């Protein structure tokens, strides 16, 4: 039924696009369409309902369904399939629960809101985070946990701070998210890259970099990497930690999506060296509300003083009200219930996406990503430019992102697009991927 549903949506959109269905034109009856597509009446009704929500069609009681035109009271709004937006699915966010926690926090922390808080966060929240992190195999005392205004703030501060190893260069995965690249280059530094892909990372080359360069720290997203969506095996993580220890290199592990990992035995790098060689960072933006700007960093003792000073200089402290609300949300058990639900939902999204890739992409393309998480990339065939495909798909109301800004100049790839399924409805994912596949085929003649 799912495939028939997608076919119906796509067929009606196609008829609207090429004006076989003109403004005000009547759509086939539900029974007629069900017979034409050899599907149930319920499937057609669901498709019509979805198109009506998108303001592409409208219903007239006892008359049927009609195409929306510019002369209609409702403004025509085409269905946009957005693979660019990477925030959490708005429909899955616990607004009401968190609002309740905010109200409680106002009462509980009304005195603290009239004075400066500790730069590293409310002591009670840090203790709660210490307990919460144990579920992710991160065992750290509250004293080593810093609450930050989003994990990007922690990364930005770590880039600027001197480290105990007195080294100055930063090694990062290629590709990686452009905000981290900007953090490095904005300070006049030149990052050292190492390629990661579906097969993992070249440990021999990583060792060569650690041995021959003056690496302060290696930045890695160990699970659901942005933009590839790939995750390292436990053995790879263990090997990287051992190399870092051998060559006196720190690892900054960005575990922004660790909560969504369905693999029960998948541990973060921090678990292999909790003494301080691995600096663990985590964000709540992708699993809660991005506007909260809350994250954390687990720091080695040797960095605590300088990080505290830098955090104070950056913003004095993270807002008390949002900290208090997070503490209540965590301690109540609401966060755990929310995450378990999200984990199932995003695993389903990832599975649908990978299946759609196999069914709809041309055989001369490849793709990355796992069965969960937000991100994946598609490698376009030959010399096809991602920017051209992006423009082509925009005209088809499908939004994808050119991955070129996520590469350093020496690693630049112009034939990759990044997709996020976080804000795409499950039933529309395959429709969007089919349009991507059709777009690749349509542009192929320009390059071969």
Automatic annotation (TrEMBL):
Family: In the C-terminal section; belongs to the class-I pyridoxal-phosphate-dependent aminotransferase family.
Name of the protein: GntR family transcriptional regulator
Highest classification ranks of the organism: Bacteria, Bacillati, Bacillota, Bacilli, Bacillales
Keyword vocabulary terms for this entry: Aminotransferase, DNA-binding, Pyridoxal phosphate, Transcription, Transcription regulation, Transferase
Keyword Lipid biosynthesis: no
Membrane-traversing stretches: none
The keyword Electron transport appears for this protein: no
Molecular functions (GO terms): DNA binding; DNA-binding transcription factor activity; pyridoxal phosphate binding; transaminase activity
């Amino acid at each position: 039924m799912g495939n028939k549903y997608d076919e119906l949506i796509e067929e009606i959109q196609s008829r609207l696009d090429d004006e076989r269905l003109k403004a005000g034109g009547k759509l086939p009856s539900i029974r007629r369409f069900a017979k034409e597509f050899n599907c149930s009446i319920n499937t057609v009704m669901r498709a019509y309902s979805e198109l009506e929500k998108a303001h592409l069609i409208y219903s007239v009681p006892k008359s049927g369904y009609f195409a929306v035109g510019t002369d209609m009271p409702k403004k025509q709004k085409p269905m946009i399939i957005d693979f660019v937006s990477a925030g959490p699915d708005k429909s899955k966010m616990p607004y009401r629960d968190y609002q309740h926690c905010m109200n409680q926090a106002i009462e509980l922390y009304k005195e603290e809101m009239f004075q400066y808080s500790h730069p590293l966060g409310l002591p009670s929240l840090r203790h709660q985070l210490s307990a919460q992190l144990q579920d992710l195999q991160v065992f750290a005392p509250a004293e080593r946990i810093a609450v930050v205004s989003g994990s990007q703030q922690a990364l930005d501060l770590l880039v600027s701070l001197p480290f105990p190893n007195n080294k100055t260069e930063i090694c990062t995965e290629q590709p990686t998210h452009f905000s981290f690249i900007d953090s490095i280059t904005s300070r006049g530094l030149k990052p050292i890259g190492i390629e990661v892909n579906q097969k993992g990372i070249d440990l021999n080359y990583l060792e060569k970099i650690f041995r021959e360069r003056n690496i302060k720290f290696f930045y890695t997203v160990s699970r659901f990497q942005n933009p590839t969506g790939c995750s390292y095996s436990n053995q790879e993580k263990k090997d990287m930690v051992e190399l870092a220890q051998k060559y006196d290199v720190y690892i900054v592990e960005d575990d922004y999506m660790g909560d969504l990992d369905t693999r029960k035995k998948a541990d973060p790098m921090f678990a292999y060296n909790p003494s301080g060689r691995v600096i663990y960072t985590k964000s709540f933006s992708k699993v809660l509300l991005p506007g909260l700007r809350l994250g954390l960093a687990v720091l080695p003792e040797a960095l605590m003083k300088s990080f505290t000073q830098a955090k104070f200089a950056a913003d004095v402290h993270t807002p008390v009200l949002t900290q208090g609300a997070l503490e209540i949300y965590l301690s109540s058990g609401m966060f755990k219930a929310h995450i378990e639900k999200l984990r199932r939902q995003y695993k389903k999204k990832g599975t649908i996406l990978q299946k759609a890739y196999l069914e709809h992409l041309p055989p001369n393309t490849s793709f990355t990503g796992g069965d969960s998480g937000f991100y994946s990339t598609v490698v376009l065939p030959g010399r096809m430019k991602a920017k051209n495909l992006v423009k082509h798909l925009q005209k088809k109301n499908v939004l994808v992102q050119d991955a070129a800004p996520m590469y350093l100049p020496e690693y630049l790839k112009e034939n990759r697009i990044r997709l996020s399924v976080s804000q795409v409805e499950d039933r529309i994912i395959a429709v969007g991927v089919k349009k991507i596949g059709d777009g690749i085929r349509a542009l192929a003649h320009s390059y071969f």
